[in-house]
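Table S2 (continued). Query chain:
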Amino acid sequence: MPKTLIKQGVIVTAADTYQGDILVEDERIVQIGQDLRPERDAEVIDATGCYVFPGAIDEHTHMAMPFNGTVTADWNTETVAAALGGTTTIVDFAKQEKGDTLAHTVEVWKRRADGRTAIDYSLHVAITDLTDAVMGEIAHIVKSGVATLKLFMAYKGETMVDDATLLTTLQVARDVGALVMVHAENGDAIDILQRQLIAAGKTEPKYHAVSRPIEIEAEATRRAIALAKVADAPIFIVHVSGLDSLEEVRRARAAGQPVFAETCPQYLLLDESYLDLPDFEGAKYVCSPPLRAAFNQEKLWHGLANGTLQAIGTDHCSFNFAQQKHLGAHDFRKIPNGVGGIENWIQLLYTYGVKTGRISLNQLVELTSTNPAKYMGLFPKKGTIAVGTDADIVVFDPAVEQTITAASQKQNSDYSVYEGFRIDGAPRHVLLRGKVIVTEGAYVGDLRDGQFVHANPYGAAYSTEREVIVSAAEQIHHLFA
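Corresponding output:
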């Protein structure tokens, strides 16, 4: 692989913003400085007028995942879309089927990904059937490079686990340094409300949200946090959708409990009114937890700015409207839950977060790259721009102006929930471990470029802030040595 020199860009990390040059060789960053001279065999990328970010890490995706009698969009299209938007690593959820082992679950997901992914990937494993044998597997799975476990408190009769399973998993995870991630909604309460709504003839998409009020999310969030405290284990709450759940996270963190959480672009930019669109259009916006009242958006932005929330993930779970969403045409319970968003999430967050002053440029990098790497066990190999790290780099041109439309998107879906949204900025070049995979907005990579990334246990959720800084410095030193 040739050397690459990125010149005259404004380098942005979670901590610093400065103008400089970056020299890349053998998949890693080998030098950062001012006015570096290009070596004879180096390819030069002029980043004048551009920001230079570490590649985004989307720590919450669902590629080629069976759900509600259908399957989400595949790796080969969605990871190309991700690359075009500046994402260089995803952490996908490998969902255990009833009776299956965790090892086989991970193997199945790797087979689906390998040779079909434009970018690097790591995995969480979603546990749905915690037998004694599966419990005994957790330590082995962590050693094999999967350091995060997902549990669903929702979807009764499908993936939902009971409190005993959640508590037991938290205890076992604590002993091996794994981080438990929780989908926090009260599945029993949802089941009752859904049955009542259907019996009353209320079948339209908007009733999906009626059956999953914020109180049900907040209650499950509070219960999950309480069980984590009993287990003396850290916990990560996924897709916090509104104020009530955010407050549960804030209170726990204020009390000193190791509770961490994310939100998603859809909860920052969309609201429940979309679910009431006519002609079944509301089905496009059905996701879980559902979209909330608009006032919640500013509360979530504030939670990102003040550190209550540590990360943003897309929860990319892409279906098409014409066939898949219409499976629930007469029963909102059968509408596949999920929306797509991996192609433009960084641009959306830059436009409606950074440019509006809700978050800083450094926070954008922290929330979409550095923190996801730290909490998912990928740091410092991923998640920052430093000597010795993987050369996952985005040259981002802030002068570009676009409007999102499904007609031009690379995501394999016949609609976009952000149709008509104006966005500023776009990746001009994207490097994956030193290889240019996007240039001038065009994908020039190969679906064999992506590799599995081994995640390490005892990530940031287990460390104090000082320990994380010291550990990161030591790991970077060892990487480059």
